[in-house]
Automatic annotation (TrEMBL):
InterPro entries: Tn903_transposase, Tnp_DDE_dom, Transposase_Tn903. Residues 26-133 form the Transposase DDE domain. This is IS5 family transposase. NCBIfam families: transpos_IS5_2. It comes from Malikia spinosa. PANTHER family: ISSOD12 TRANSPOSASE TNPA_ISSOD12 (PTHR34631:SF3), PTHR34631. It comes from the Bacteria. Pfam families: DDE_Tnp_1_5 (PF13737).
Length: 314
């Protein structure tokens, strides 16, 4: 047995407790979600037929209140009506059937701050239950075959911790096929410096998509990787460099040297998504996509209000 002793975990100190405490309180303030300059009424689209009575921003606001407080749709409409009265606004409130119908085609606006010094993108995925019994029943009596999941794929900015790309797929779709779609959501005019992901993204298609954006791939090679790839497509040579560095230095040293461990930030963000609900409430796929996009918009707003700043003390 080895006598090697694991080093003690590092200790950190939060240096902006006062500002961070105010930011946490602001998350529960009702009026930070309501903009009096919001375009509430729908605008003429130039197409045939009656124009929409409510704008996409109004529908997104209603769904934001629903997700933020974990309400059923009818309860959320009642809360929206109360908020508008408290704000002294005489705007009409959509009924629940209108919101439900519009959710299917809603183009959710996810606010974010562009990366000033270039974007370091961290990607990961997780599963969210959409149908099935609870964990207690599964533990006592076993799981039924009807349990179904959706897979949520996100990419976050390593600097601002805001969600910059989001995709929702059936559980049967893996991580690697979705990466090009995530990169496609990043503005082509924005400098993408690196993309960090786990070994599931170690595929030729992923490395090619990253290379076409002229970014660095920080992806560990699979544990059974032995031979380099043929360098006949973009990204192959960069991946071969990772393989040689891993074989020469070891996987642990390569991860520390490349900055791979900051990928844990996206795992923390996934935990934040699940804190807003382990289960997806919508039943059809298009509404599920909109529901998770609204959650992403809420989390970005939380992040913009303030995050803890820490320094290592030991």
């Amino acid at each position: 047995m080895s006598d090697r002793v694991r080093p003690a975990p590092a200790k950190y100190k939060t240096t902006n407790w006062r500002r961070y405490n105010q930011a946490l309180k602001a998350r529960g303030a009702l009026m930070i979600w309501l903009d009096r300059d919001l375009q509430w009424s729908g605008l003429a689209s130039g197409k045939r037929g009656r124009p929409s009575l409510f704008s996409d921003a109004a529908i997104q606001f209603c769904l934001t209140i629903k997700s933020l407080f974990g309400l059923a749709l009818r309860q959320a409409m009642g809360m929206v009506e109360s908020l508008l009265k408290l704000a002294g606004l005489s705007w009409p409130v959509p009924d629940y059937s209108t919101v439900c119908r519009r959710q299917k085609t809603l183009k959710v606006r996810i606010p974010y701050r562009p990366a000033a010094q270039g974007l370091h993108l961290l990607v990961d995925s997780t599963g969210l239950k959409m149908m099935g019994e609870g964990e207690w029943k599964c533990k006592k009596h076993g799981a039924e075959y009807r349990r179904q999941w959706r897979r949520l794929h996100i990419g976050i900015d390593a600097q601002t911790l805001e969600i910059r790309a989001i995709e929702v797929t059936p559980n049967s779709v893996g991580d690697a096929p979705v990466l090009p779609a995530l990169l496609g959501q990043i503005d082509p005019n924005e400098a993408l410096l690196s993309v960090s992901g786990d070994g599931a993204y170690d595929t030729k298609a992923c490395h090619e998509a990253i290379a076409l954006r002229q970014a660095q791939a920080i992806i560990p090679v699979r544990k059974n990787a032995r031979k380099p790839w043929k360098e006949n497509r973009p990204g192959a040579s960069a991946r071969n460099e990772i393989l040689r560095a891993t074989q020469r230095l070891g996987r642990s040293i390569w991860k520390r040297w490349s900055g791979y461990h900051r990928r844990s930030l996206v795992e923390t963000k996934m935990r934040c998504v699940k804190l807003m609900g382990e289960r997806i409430m919508a039943r059809d796929f298009e509404r599920q996509v909109a529901e998770l996009q609204v959650r992403a918009a809420i989390l970005n707003r939380f992040t913009q209000l303030g995050t803890p700043e820490t320094v290592r003390v030991g």
